[in-house]
Amino acid sequence: MIDYTLTLDNVVKYFGRRLVFDGLNLTFESGNVYGIAGPNGSGKSTLVKIISNIISPTRGKIVHTSSQKIIEGEKLHDYIGFVSPYLFLYDEFTAEENLIHFSNIRGIKFNKQRADYLLAQVNLFDRRNDLVRGYSSGMKQRLKFIFALLHEPQLIILDEPVSNLDNSGKEIVYGIISEEGKKNLVLVASNEDSDLQLCNEVLNLENYKQNKKI
Amino acid sequence: MKAYSLFKKDWESELRTRYAINALAMFILVTISVIMFSIGSEKITEYLTGGLLWVVIFFSAMSGLSRAFVSEEERGTTMTLHLIASPSTIFSGKLIFNLLLVFLMNFAITFLFFVLFESFIIKNIFLFAVAFLFGNIGIAISSTIIAAIISKASSKGTLYPVLSFPILLPLILTLLELTKFAMDGNSINDSLVEILVLVCYDVIMLTASYLLFDFIWKE
Q1: Per the CB < 8 Å rule, is A74 touching B1?
Q2: What are the residue ranges spanned by the domains of chain B?
Q3: Helix or strand holding residue A201 (H, E)
Q4: Is there a single domain that holds both residue A74 and residue A93?
Q5: Record: contact A90-B9, CB cut-off 8 A
Q6: What is the domain range of residue A46?
Q7: Are A122 and A140 in contact (CB under 8 A)?
């Protein structure tokens, strides 16, 4: 298991004058599944986007380290696997074409064996040559897990991982979370009790809100 | 190599969706037809055809080149790009894509001008080719960075020409001058200052774009 650590140092986020969260001082380590909970609008998605370096915090610092080495922002995408309902893949390509393009853009060789294994794991192997345009929302959600896992990331961020999934899809996702949580760092942002039950520790964002205005 | 892979993805996507090519082709056809109709049987001067060439190129660039980033924003795939590549890779990939589009578009426009306008006569083809090369590179770089800026805005259609005009104006003015020189049959040495202005414009825009893109790209 590679030692991956994520440290949030006094992270604060405002949208305009509205405080989203304040004073987040946390450390997450690999080999664990952490939950991020909170009601709608509490900033779960904002926090995971900040951690993924997609948006900037208003104040504070986020440090990612792999084997005690700090990962620079430019290279962070190589270490992160991300799944969320607001992530979209390319509709005009087939599932396999999407995965080939993603591997090439990442600068890694397309691992067909791993792609086929993951496609089979999420029950999409037979539909791998169909255009994503023709997929149902649940199938698109399953494909996002392959997008997130194909490059073997060390930090896996799952924002509402079971949205649009049927019961069998949920079981598959819970299996993936348990498996990945043994060797990697997994963050699950969700309100579903069944999702949060898989977590070793749950962080409630409601505890990081003060009625402050800037 | 990563940038080339991103370009390849964009090109294959373009061939399937025809997001930019159709818009560009229609715009070129419509604009040139309108010019032909408005001229009628009048004989126009050489210099005027040179000016019209760059007017058509400027507005065609406005209609098609913003798609590089706007299409990603509209399809919601901007975040996907964030998660697979660094900002410099994304900018390079999109720039290669726009370079190809600009060259294809401008070759088509120039060819149509040669065929349709009798007075479009270039005496120094080599000088025109040099201006065409550096001009196209400048248009592609400027359009790419402006497209990245406006893709985050709500009124994309209006903002693109408004932002492009001041940025592309020095380039278009220099290109107009060089086209005039090429029509007069001036030598490269006589036009060296204008060519150097073009090269400087390209280098400045490229450097500024790479420096700024990181800030534009990250919300």
Answers
A1: no
A2: 2-217
A3: strand A201-204
A4: no
A5: yes
A6: 1-79+155-161+184-214
A7: no
Determine the average pLDDT of the residues in B131-138.
94
Q: Which residues of B touch A105 (CB under 8 A)?
A: 2, 5-6, 9, 84-85, 89, 93
Averaged pLDDT for residues B127-131: 92
Residue A116 has pLDDT above 50, yes or no: yes
Q: Which amino acid is at B164?
A: S
Domain total in chain A = 2
Are A88 and B1 in contact (CB < 8 Å)?
no
For residue A209, is it within any domain? yes
Q: Which one of B9-23, B100-114, B150-164 scores highest in mean pLDDT?
A: B100-114
Q: A9: phi > 0 → left, psi -120 to 50 → alpha, else beta; which?
A: beta
Contact residues, chain A, for B5 at CB < 8 Å = 101, 104-105, 107
Here the CATH number for the domain that contains residue A53 is 3.40.50.300
pLDDT of residue A212: 47
Per-residue pLDDT at B124 exceeds 80 = yes
Chain B residues lying within 8 Å of A53, measured CB to CB: 82, 218
Are A184 and A155 contacting, i.e. CB atoms less than 8 angstroms apart? yes
Same domain, yes or no: A53 and A127: no
Show contacts of A206-209: CB within 8 Å, 24+ apart. Answer: A206/A38, A206/A39, A206/A42, A208/A21, A208/A22, A208/A23, A208/A24, A209/A19, A209/A20, A209/A21, A209/A22, A209/A42
The residue in chain B having the minimum alpha-carbon distance to the alpha carbon of residue A50 is B219
What tens digit of pLDDT does each residue of B44-76 get? Answer: 888 888 899 999 998 888 877 778 888 888 888
Say yes or no for a CB contact (<8 Å) between A87 and B79: yes
Indicate which of A105, A143, A150 best probes the interface with B, i.e. most B CBs within 10 Å of its own CB: A105
Which of B6, B80, B89 has the highest number of chain A CBs within 10 A, making it the mutation to test binding with A?
Answer: B80
Residue of chain B whose alpha carbon sits nearest to that of A57: B219
Q: For residue A150, is pLDDT > 50?
A: yes
Q: Is 90 exceeded by the pLDDT of residue A79?
A: yes
Summary mean pLDDT of chain B: 89
The reply to whether ipTM tops 0.90 is: no
